[in-house]
Amino acid sequence: MQFTQEHEEIRRTTRAIIERDVNPYVDEWEKNDIFPAHQVFKKFGEAGLLGISKPVEFGGMGLDYSYSMVMAEELGTIGCGGVPMAIGVQTDMATPALARFGSDAVRKEFLAPSIAGDYVACLGVSEVGAGSDVASIKTTAKRVGDDYVINGGKMWTTNGTQADWICLLANTGDGQAHRNKTLICVPMKTKGVQIARKLDKLGMRSSDTAQIFFDEVKVPVKNRIGEEGMGFVYQMQQFQEERMWGAASSLKGMEKIIDHTIEYTRQRKIFGKPILDNQVVHFKLAELKAEIEALRSLIYRACEEYINGNDVTMLASMAKLKGGRLMRQVADSCLQYWGGMGYMTESPVSRAFRDTRLMSIGGGADEVMLQIISKMMGTLPRLENK
Amino acid sequence: MQFTQEHEEIRRTTRAIIERDVNPYVDEWEKNDIFPAHQVFKKFGEAGLLGISKPVEFGGMGLDYSYSMVMAEELGTIGCGGVPMAIGVQTDMATPALARFGSDAVRKEFLAPSIAGDYVACLGVSEVGAGSDVASIKTTAKRVGDDYVINGGKMWTTNGTQADWICLLANTGDGQAHRNKTLICVPMKTKGVQIARKLDKLGMRSSDTAQIFFDEVKVPVKNRIGEEGMGFVYQMQQFQEERMWGAASSLKGMEKIIDHTIEYTRQRKIFGKPILDNQVVHFKLAELKAEIEALRSLIYRACEEYINGNDVTMLASMAKLKGGRLMRQVADSCLQYWGGMGYMTESPVSRAFRDTRLMSIGGGADEVMLQIISKMMGTLPRLENK
Amino acid sequence: MQFTPEHEELRRTWRTVIERDINPHMDEWEKEGIFPAHEVFKKLGNAGLLGVDKPVEFGGAGLDFSYTMVSAEELGLVNGGSVPMAVGVQMAMATPALARFGSDEVRKEFLAPSISGDYVACLGVSEVGAGSDVASIKTTARRDGGDYVINGGKMWTTNGTQADWMCLLANTSDDAVHTNKTLICLPMKTKGVQIARKLDKLGMRASDTAQIFFDDVRVPVRNRIGEEGMGFIYQMKQFQEERLWACAGSLKGCERTINATIEYTRQRKIFGKPILDNQVVHFKLAELLTEVEALRSLTYRACEDYLAGQDVTMLASMGKLIAGRLRRTVSDSCLQYWGGMGYMTESPVSRAFRDGRLGSIGGGADEVMLTIISKLMGTLPRPERN
Amino acid sequence: MQFTPEHEELRRTWRTVIERDINPHMDEWEKEGIFPAHEVFKKLGNAGLLGVDKPVEFGGAGLDFSYTMVSAEELGLVNGGSVPMAVGVQMAMATPALARFGSDEVRKEFLAPSISGDYVACLGVSEVGAGSDVASIKTTARRDGGDYVINGGKMWTTNGTQADWMCLLANTSDDAVHTNKTLICLPMKTKGVQIARKLDKLGMRASDTAQIFFDDVRVPVRNRIGEEGMGFIYQMKQFQEERLWACAGSLKGCERTINATIEYTRQRKIFGKPILDNQVVHFKLAELLTEVEALRSLTYRACEDYLAGQDVTMLASMGKLIAGRLRRTVSDSCLQYWGGMGYMTESPVSRAFRDGRLGSIGGGADEVMLTIISKLMGTLPRPERN
Q1: What is the nearest CA distance from B116 to chain D, expressed in angstroms?
Q2: pLDDT tens for residues A178-235?
Q3: Distances (CA, A) of A72 to A11, A52, A246, C377, D301
Q4: What is the rounded distance in angstroms from the CA atom of residue C234 to the CA atom of residue C183?
Q5: Cα separation values, B235 from A233, B101, B138, B226, B320, Å
Q6: Is the distance from CB of D43 to CB of D21 less than 8 angstroms?
Q7: What are the average pLDDT values for consecutive 10-residue runs of chain B, which has 386 residues?
């Protein structure tokens, strides 16, 4: 994969905004357990970064996915995991299906302002009883005249307390679980949408996660994304980008932890020499760096294939799996060399330790990735029907 | 667990025989792909070491299992894995059930000479279609008058080509798989017993492993061990000692590898200093030693419980599992620091690498241990019936 | 190691107090970032739990160390690591040297009330520049008439903001670093003792950790523990018990996490069956329990040897190393199977994940244990080399 | 990295030759402890496979390095590591420097016949005292008139007993260790070249490894490759391609093992269902394939950068490190699921286990790669410290 000047340009712009409008405030946002999504998204929107691979007619740049990927990579330089995740939801989790299958009307109403940074989007897939097991969601959207009437609830919703609209997956029929679902754009102000609670998390503190209830929520049928019953399929496609994005955004975060650790262990002395001079320390860091480069290569390759129109479900799932595992290993290993300081909330590595633990769980747990990979390897038990 | 003078005495005697009658010949036996079991067993037999915890009336010492365990531990000082395994089959795999449930007649005929070292025993449980899955063996022993007529075959039989008799597990009925099996002492000279082939193995070269066929083999019913139909139960009990023995015999083998590695890496220099001076090397060795001591503690504790009459299936299975894993890790890690020399057949660590790989497979694979532990934890799927 | 009815009785008492006076309040204390040490310790003191192995004449029960081990083990049942750690400081870290080498006068003044639960103790060893590297502490206690005049500071001091007195390690001369240190009982109310700040930690949030400064702090020479210059030696002895405590203290905590996970994954369904029914889940739990039992065995064995008067530095350091790593593995592995719930602050496993991470850092980091083990193995580079 | 029809064509040719002329004979060659290099290489030469990236004027195809990578990858389909390693020496280890820096005369004499398959080449770098530590080799080539007079010896020389010539690294002066070395083409028939012994190895049994002595061996100065004193630099360059070869060469070998395991565990039943149906089995295989794909991605990326003229020392070293470890993990993990059969010499997985262990040792051990990576990360201790 060879990068162009445009790629570099995207990287530079992204970093500039991060340095100026994000990193100086991260500690405060982390303390407040929330960041001002509208304010921050507007900055990225003005720079056109929220629609890199989105259609030009709705304010996007119309570039291929490799440009979204380099932005995801740069987001790793943000001083926490919460804000990048929130941006990822906006650009690569809640909007790909809308951009690809939505009518002009619905794209004008929801996609354009999301690209501009005026709207904050969230994704409504997971439920209390159905996290990784998407097919088993219970939320329903019953057709009544020209409206859908929505009942049920969503769980683990990132951006949930601040979002202007939700890309909602709901059952619009009683048919087979893979053909009865539909994606619908639901304005969060709509009557009956209730934010049950803001969840208190181990990490990702600056990102708000909500549990949401829907009680007889009415939205016009035209808010539907694409065809009725195609929701599950659309969502599965949407997951491809979500997974590549998740893995790509992890790279520089891990490298940042390693760099911090090198810096800290170089100036910190124990038994008369810098901690870094211990072979177990610099060898471990070398090993982690090697794995990071392997992951980066896997992501670049997946991205290339994706751009060439190939199905990258396998490679994207592998990247997501390896990314989740590696982030935990990097954060845990590096924290060790910080000694007591690593256990202090103020140290960047302790925040990384809390934030990174999510990746093996969110957006399809490791075990779901293993399930997908096994399936594509043709090694799943023949009799079972998954 | 506090050891007595008698324990030390057993250790000393075992080591003396190993130094005098075993280690000087190991390389040769390894090259020959077999060791002279009768000759070697006789030496141990004369010292009474083949019947440490066996009844006095048949030549045993009648001591508790802790004495067998310390002998197993000392056998780890033998320069290969094949010979200790062969001895283990004789003392703790093929004879415990016979000693405990056999009639005086059958014990006089098979146990006494096995303790004396005149007979070599082997265990006939595994079959081509049934390795870890004992319940599914196919070999049958049909009652005809006062005889059993045996048909079928056994696989992976250690000592198989040299044994005088086999402790055979066969189906004597068509009943439920756990109640239709019987243990029978079968002289290997009996007409119809055919040693199909000597298996060529990755390691354990000095130990002979046979595939054996039984074609209308007739043995008197009085050769039966204990009651008919109790074979599976007896064998499961016999497995307890086999597993403790296997774990115990691994300890000094691993320590020997580590000591050799310390010795070698201390005199071998790279980039101007002893390899051992690399922190990754001596830290790794320290880590391995810590795990070995944990395993040793687990075994001692299991042994204590066993002597106190408690069921140690759980602890023994845990020891077997951890032992198998640890041996692989120790051999693989140490080999690394020997560089090219570690890859040479002549180096002790390359032999250890080949020999140790068996423990996670033989005598119940790791996965079988995990199955047992899960079962005792009550975490196996409720619906399945294992 | 065979336990007596007295051991069982002690376990019962601990469990009662924990269930009644500690667990119901943990969540609240975690939120407040501190637990009421005086109130809680008084209850433990009244139950006679704080001085199980301390001399009878000062209110202790005069039992051997195995009872302290049992106490540490039962404390694992507290649903959080903070309180056990605080109690550990009181029982096994700040008081062993005092109990063994202190004069009757100083024991009457500091030990007795610490056993009765009226006083809260803390240990003053670690400093900003000297965490694991004890020999290099900088705090001084200059002799001035009948007083010591103390200057310097301590870091990472558990119980630091609530303690009535500190078992302080300070340099009382400029001799060699191993012979110039002295342990002194320092009342925290003394003029010049300043609690610089309460540290904000990744976990152990209900435990207060302080940074403390000493500015010309005067204490009478009679507050000294044992002989002048023996402080380093005493402290090293004290570390043995601290490490054994750490081993024993990890056992039930790990089991608590494993059991909570079994319970949760059994009732939680995914893809139509309990999460626990996934083989990767119950096998993983079996592996974890295996390691816990190995650690328990090592701990009991070390305790037995310790009671038999042997030096257990090697075994205790090995145990501490294994314990620290195991707590990380257990909490990280289990958290995975809780899915999104595991990432929620409210879930016990997320607390275990945060609390457990300290094990490999506090009380001598993994690398310190590895150095000690390497040293005892004789594999450390000859001094001049490093 | 986008492959062309030419790449595909080359892959096909390799597969044809491997299926027809190599795989049918591997078992036999393994038993004999050597393969007929001249016979095999001639067949490869006739197919134009030995000089894909070598200059056309000497019989090469003049293609770029990506074709060499493709060759290495396809060689993974050989059912054993020996032949691929021998071919690798011929194509990517002993000849790159010659092809790039050799005079037409010396290339005509040694390169052309090595490309046509008439000559077998070996590489003379490692010595008894200097395996990974190349700078410290002791062999000398003293200038005497128009000759070099060579004295010393080489160790671990692949193809050593069959080679027609050796690409020898020797000290031609007493200057600094990095500027006193020269590469020389040495005909093995030359008087004074003595093959001391053929080494007996843990694996790679069909490949001959020799220890070689040089006693006043005379070769004309014109046999020198490039400039005198540049040998170390040339060799370092040569190592880059050797490492990329090692990465590419590991991919299909690992996949072959994984696929063979899928096949075997699918037809083999335990407890009434295929072994493959165990979740721990198919999930583990999914993990392994994930790591293989990550390595493949890293390899392709490094190759692309290499072709783009960038220095890939970092990526190539990382790849070599990951490849060596992965081959061990894959073969060890897969062997487990073969049960007893995996321990039999006849099973492909046991050969993979033995052959694969060399990866972390040969061509620069893992620790050398870690040192290089650490160096490039700038984390190595300042010289004076170590």
Answers
A1: 31
A2: 999 999 999 999 999 999 999 999 999 999 999 999 999 999 999 999 999 999 999 9
A3: 9, 11, 8, 49, 19
A4: 8
A5: 54, 11, 16, 12, 17
A6: yes
A7: 91 97 96 96 97 96 95 96 96 96 97 98 91 87 97 96 97 92 97 94 94 97 96 90 93 96 91 88 93 94 92 94 95 92 91 93 90 91 58
The answer to whether residue B200 neighbours chain D at the CB level (below 8 Å) is: yes
Q: Contact at 8 Å (CB) between D115 and D50?
A: yes
Give pLDDT tens digits for D268-292: 888 788 999 999 999 999 999 999 9
ipTM tops the 0.90 cut:
no
- The whole-angstrom separation of Cα B253 and Cα A165 is 65
Closest partner residue to B270 among D132, D346, D354, by Cβ? D132
Nearest chain D Cα distance for residue B46, angstroms: 34
**pLDDT at residue B384 in the model:** 47
Percentage with pLDDT > 90 across chain D: 87
Which string of b and e fits D250-276 if b means at least 16 CB within 10 Å?
bbbbbbbbbebbbebbbebbbeeebbb
Q: Are strands B181-187 and B165-171 parallel, antiparallel or unpaired?
A: antiparallel
Scan residues 276-335 of B and list those with Cβ closer than 8 Å to C: 276-277, 281-283, 285-287, 289-291, 293-302, 304, 308, 314-315, 318, 321-322
Nearest-by-Cβ selection for D385 from A273, A300, A367: A273
Give the residue from chain D lying closest to C282, CA to CA.
Answer: D280
SS3 A367: helix
From chain B, the residues in CB contact with A283 under 8 A are 280
Contact D287 A321 (CB under 8 A): yes
Nearest-CA distance from B275 to chain A in Å?
12
Distance from CA of A125 to the nearest CA of B (A): 29
Q: Is C78 left (phi over 0), alpha (psi -120 to 50) or beta?
A: beta
Name the DSSP letter for residue B92. Answer: I
A109 is a catalytic site residue: no
Task: Tell whether C366 is within 8 A of chain A (Cβ).
Answer: yes
Task: Identify the three-state secondary structure at position C183.
Answer: strand
Chain D residue nearest residue C283, CA to CA:
D280
Q: Measure the CA–CA gap between C116 and C54, rounded to whole angstroms.
A: 11
C-alpha A129/C-alpha A152 separation (Å) is 11
Rg (CA), chain A: 21
Residues of chain D with pLDDT under 50: 385-386
- Rounded to two decimals, the pTM is 0.88
The verdict on A2 touching B (C-beta cutoff 8 Å) is no
C287/B321 touch (CB, cutoff 8 Å), yes or no: yes
CB spacing of C361 vs A344 below 8 angstroms = no
- Residues D188-201: tens digit of each pLDDT: 999 999 999 999 99
Q: Which helix (H) or strand (E) holds B212?
A: strand B209-220
A258 in Cβ contact with A303 (< 8 Å)? no
